[in-house]
Specification:
Strand content of chain A: 15-25%
Strand order of the largest sheet of chain B: 22-24-27-23-17-33-32
Largest sheet of chain B: 7 strands, antiparallel
Number of strands of chain A: 11
Strand order of the largest sheet of chain A: 3-6-9-1-10
Number of strands of chain B: 35
Radius of gyration of chain B: 45 Å
Helix content of chain A: 40-55%
Structural class of chain B: alpha+beta
Oligomer: heterodimer
Number of helices of chain A: 12
Radius of gyration of chain A: 20 Å
Distance between the termini of chain B: 48 Å
Shape of chain A: globular
Mean pLDDT of chain A: 83
Amino acid sequence: MTAATLPHVLSPSAVTAVAGRLVDNVSEVVRGQPAAVQYLAAAFLSGGHVLIEDTPGNGKTTLAHAFARSVAADFRRVQGAPDLLPSDVTGSSVWNQVTQSFTFVPGPVFSHVLLVDELNRTPPRTQAAFLEAMEEGTVTVDGVSHPLPSPFTVIATQNPLEQHGAYPLPEGQLDRFALRVTLAPLGEEDELRVLRDQVHHATVTDLPPVIDVATWHASCAAVRQVYVAPAVSAYALAVVRATRNHPQIAHGASSRAAISFVRTAQAWAVLNGREYVVPEDLQAIAIAALAHRVAGAGGAATAALADILARTPVPLGS
Amino acid sequence: MSEDVRRDGSRSLTRLGAWLLCGNVTLVALGLLRGDVWLYLVALLAVSAVTVSWLIVPRLPHIESGLQLATTEVVGQPTPARLVLRAGVVPVPRHHLTLHVDGDAVPVEAVVAALAPGQVRAVPVVLRPAVRGRHDGRTTVAWTSAPFGLVRRTHIDRHALLRTVAAGIHDGRVGPAASSADGGGTSIRVGRSGPDVHALRAWAPGDGTAVHWRATARRGAPVVVDRESPERLSLVVVIGPAGGSAGADRTDATIALAAGVALRAAREGADVRLVTAAGAESLGAEEARELLSWTAAAQPVAATPENADEAVRLAGPGGRVVVVTGQPALVWTHAGETYGVDVVILTAAAATTEPASPPAAAPVPSHRLLVATLCSLAAGLAAMASTGVVPVGEAVGWGVCIAVAGVSVDRRPTVLASAHLRTALTLLIVAITGAFAVALNNHGDLAPAAGTAVAGLALAAMVSQRTRRDVLVALGLGPVMGVSAAGLAPGPELALPLVLVAVAVLAGLAAASEDSLHDGVAPTAGTTDAHLRRPLAGPVTAVIGAGLVAFLVLPLGAAPTLGTSLLGARNHPQTALEAAAELMPDYVSGMLDLGARGHLPHTPTFEVPAGSPPLWRAMTLDTVASGVWSSQVTQQVIEAGTRSRVPLPVSPADLGAPSRPARDYDVLPIESGSIIAPGPPQAVRGIDRIGHWQTDGFDIAGPLTPYTVTATPREDVDSLTRAGTGPDRAESRWVAADPDTTARTDALARSVVAGTTDRVAAVQAVQAWLRANVRYQLDAPLPPRGEDPVDFLLFSSRAGFCEHFAAAEVTLLRSLGIPSRIATGYSVGSAREDTPGRLTVLASDAHAWVEVWIPGHGWVTSDPTAGSTLADPSTDQGLLQRAGAAWTMAWSTDGSRRGLAAIVLLLVALVAGGSVALRRRRATATTTGRTSAARAATTEPLAAFGRFRAALSADGLGSADSPRPGDGVHDVRRRVAGDVLLDDAQLLGALDVVERVLYDRAAPPTQVRLGAADVLDRHTAALLARAPVATR
């Protein structure tokens, strides 16, 4: 998409307001998860995909659903299952009796927001179908590339506990997620509220959309313009490179990870009402943005990253 | 010292300088419009001098300033005070300094020696009684003086006062405590005078939010502090006696140390009370400003047991008393022991005495200035001698005297050391010169009298000169001589002397201005002088060159001179006849010189009946030679009885058409004795003796009495359609052209009348051509000597007054062989009707027109001026029309066009040169000054942030190993959160600024950055002050 076809350009403060509306709206339904909501908002604004990882029943799907509903955009959902086929996701060509030719019937991936529930329960073949869609924004079926709507965000959930009948996501797949979000345990009060809210019906279905696709798109464009000082870029890279040398990390984050890291930090800066990225933005998202991309199981990667963040000097101009 | 010196200052004109500049620019424009070379040249040089003087003054960099009032003010008496100055990041050259109080007059002047970057200096000043009592709102303006009332100002921070005072206290006044009850540590604990010992205990319900966050963070569980006393920290600062034999300096030091202690404690949040002889006063953190008035009025408290008891009671149990004194006495400690109050006795370190600036002695003129002055005077004398204002011998005499006086005063200061002798000598010279000048003036020689007076003044100035100002006065007398010469007797020979005067004056001003920067110090060889000279050399050269070129290209002869407009003088010696012609505007002398200009006052001259024809003739002029018209002189007197009607000898042919009847007109002569009539006068009644001077001009030879004149009004050529039949009067005196008439005039005449067959038509054509192509202008340029006036009018100036119009028409007609002559008299067309039925004719109504012979009609009038404005300045054109006309005129002839083109080119060159110079200066300022300033402002908040961070770590706020490399600005924010002292919006704002400086696309404005640095430094200071308590 070229700049000329952009609906309009938003100022950073306007994007901050948009993001605030989004976050407020989602928080109406998703109680006690401010960090997760912020991360998702950042991913939304930076055009990245999110992987929500938590045990079942903690509101992963509600969170994803709430975001999808908050945007007045085309929203599809795919339920991960061992028998899910790639064509169930991408769509397939069917024989048209009238025209005597194959016609492409788009699958659920042709949407603005795609919720893939329990991604790790789909077989690797089907997981691979998402790769092109997530990275290139296109789907190729029978040798024909079909562009996906823009913006396109995948919100996937996975359950780390239940390993039976699950296919762990390959590194290549994980690397395409800008953020991996883990939900925090709910406090007593929050849980009580959730209980009260949800006892009659799922409140997420009542959630009104607060931004439209054009605004979303313009916000993404504006977020890309957020200033990243050379020192801050260097700092981001230093963190990413440190993952490659850390003893507790088998192999470090990729260059794609670095790019995605900084882009998400741009969105994070806007969420915090700034027009420029500060090292603290990178620090705030570092775990979410990098931990799933480095090989080091679970807590080890997180601890290693925290260590890296503490050691990497923040640029302070001297 | 480098180019940076010029940074951050601004130049401005004083009001006087601005007026001077405006006035001179106006004069330049006027001179240009009028074509007045002298006006133009003099004004141009003046403008240049103002501009140069503006350019040569160096800029002063930023200086922070504040006033310390360390001693008691006494109402109505001068108050000694200290002006504390702190240089910014660039060195400050030596300069004069004035202190303005709220825009009032200048109460304080001082000379400040050069300051190194960041150097602090206290200058002793004396405040006049008029400004006492207002210690805030003082703004200091540092300036360097320039000639013509121009100054350069530096920007002074209006709020620099507190900072500077604080700086003064810290830098020079609070030293390590000489004797301290705490055991002689180098730091004094102030502020926490209350219970220093406190107990930490676990938080319990009911403690509310009174959590000690730092300890809580350290222990990982909520902790509160139990203080022994919940009261605010309280501190009593007492100013004790400075010591028996101590001077004001010691008292100052005592007061300043006390002030420093109080200020610190107040900023730390302590409840500070100041005890002076006047009693106790509370000082809050927000009232630090009040400290100033407090120090100004402070009087030591005597060391008596009563005072000590009172101070200690004020502190209360657990409080702390700080006694600052030069005379430690036991009473304080006794009182403290008695009441269980901690008493600290501080002795002020002996005040570091600033080297006092040497008293600003009257600056002595430098040799360069003296030489320039002598040159200026010599050139001025040369100007006067060359124009004959002062005889050459006299000028040489003056010159020798002046030179001897100047050199002897300079070389042998002892010769005229006695002030009395000098005064006596000066008075003597002034008296002798004055008497001489008055005698000359009485004798009627205005020019030599004025010249002598100016020269005498110059000699007196040289004899009495002692200071630079005296010599500058003498320097200014050179231009006075030059301008006097130009006014009294202008001429091209003035060119060289005037240019020399200008050069000498500019050089002298430059020398004086440069000297003023080195008052009292030997000029050091180095860049300081170089950077002063560089901007000077270009403009001075340009200005002198411009003046010279302007003088050379401007058509001198074509322009009226300064002298003409000021004094009505002529540029060639007058004959008695010409003088008479000038004084008698009605041309009774029988002469009309086109190269001269008469002065026509607005005085009533005649009264004539209303409704009479517009042109009243006094005489005609028919003979012409070299631009001077005259008529035949007869010199006879006709005797007549008062009552009788006397026929006048008029040629019958003069009477015009025989068909027109003669009429009687009653004329009341008021000022002029001419006999005037609407036509040739045939008879007159009411006059005893009639003078008959010219062919047809008559005059009252006796007293002015009303008379009745009989005359036939002339027909006007405009009322005719064609010539009749009749004889032609082609006599030689009416057709003989001026032998000087040029060929192109003849050619013009033929081309104007081409196509006409009738004489009436020919005359009307010539008349119409003149009305259309020559502009009426009373102060039109006079023809240069030796040039035919008519040719000059028709082909060069295209502007003239009635005489020029009439002469031109007659010349053109005669070159066609048409008999014609000039008639002079009055145009009553625009005269006022003061009394009913009577028109008042003014001298300024004097007019000249043409009489032309038309066969069948006789002499008829033709007034080529009539299409334009008549000779009445009150109906003169507006400035715009005149400017337009001047423009047209400028482009109508070759010579003027050249001149104007040269002027325009010159102006363009000047503007271009000036703008290039300015741009270069600005560029230099940008590349050297501004970038370094920007860099300084960028690093300043960062450096302050670094200090604050270090202080934070020293204070123990946050974890023990902090800061880690990964801790940035936000970490600091987190650490100060919840801290009583640090968690305020100001600090958070400052941290935001630091963040923006570090990471934002565009850094915040300088002021914001500096403000943030300030806030950070203040908090750093507060942290450091608290440090000992925290580590205990």
